[in-house]
């Protein structure tokens, strides 16, 4: 079974680390996440493009562009493109239309999956990075 990308959890880890350790470098973040610095640079690029962080070239270092209480988990989720084309769930293609289930499964399941994604996104919008950081204490 295909899993949701780890970009989201790495991005939350990264932003949390930047919030509690100002001016930390990509190598420092990679050490905390225990991953390759290239992965951190890619995610930092996505977070920068979304207006969540600024990255200083040269010596390095990163800073949040918003207070942690103003960054929601939904902001992070959207910044790192966890879901392809805003579609968290995909439905298999080419079902047998001669079959009762095969010809109807996509239409029946599509509404349920869209509702599930909206519920998840609503929940992510209710939690801020600041609330996550408070739980580290």
Automatic annotation (TrEMBL):
<dbReference type="Pfam" id="PF02082">
    <property type="entry name" value="Rrf2"/>
</dbReference>
<dbReference type="InterPro" id="IPR000944">
    <property type="entry name" value="Tscrpt_reg_Rrf2"/>
</dbReference>
<dbReference type="GO" id="GO:0005829">
    <property type="term" value="C:cytosol"/>
</dbReference>
<dbReference type="InterPro" id="IPR036390">
    <property type="entry name" value="WH_DNA-bd_sf"/>
</dbReference>
<protein>
    <submittedName>
        <fullName>Transcriptional regulator family protein</fullName>
    </submittedName>
</protein>
<dbReference type="GO" id="GO:0003700">
    <property type="term" value="F:DNA-binding transcription factor activity"/>
</dbReference>
<dbReference type="InterPro" id="IPR036388">
    <property type="entry name" value="WH-like_DNA-bd_sf"/>
</dbReference>
């Amino acid at each position: 079974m295909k899993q949701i990308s780890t970009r989201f959890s790495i991005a939350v880890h990264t932003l949390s680390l930047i919030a509690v350790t100002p001016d930390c470098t990509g190598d420092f973040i990679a050490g905390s996440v225990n991953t390759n610095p290239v992965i951190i640079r890619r995610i930092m690029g996505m977070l920068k493009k979304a207006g969540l962080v600024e990255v200083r070239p040269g010596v390095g270092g990163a800073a949040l562009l918003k207070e942690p209480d103003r960054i929601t988990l939904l902001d992070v989720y959207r910044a790192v493109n966890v879901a392809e084309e805003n579609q968290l769930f995909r439905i298999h293609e080419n079902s047998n239309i001669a079959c009762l289930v095969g010809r109807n499964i996509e239409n029946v399941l599509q509404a349920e999956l869209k509702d599930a994604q909206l519920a998840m996104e609503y929940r992510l919008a209710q939690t801020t990075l600041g609330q996550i950081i408070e739980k580290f204490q």
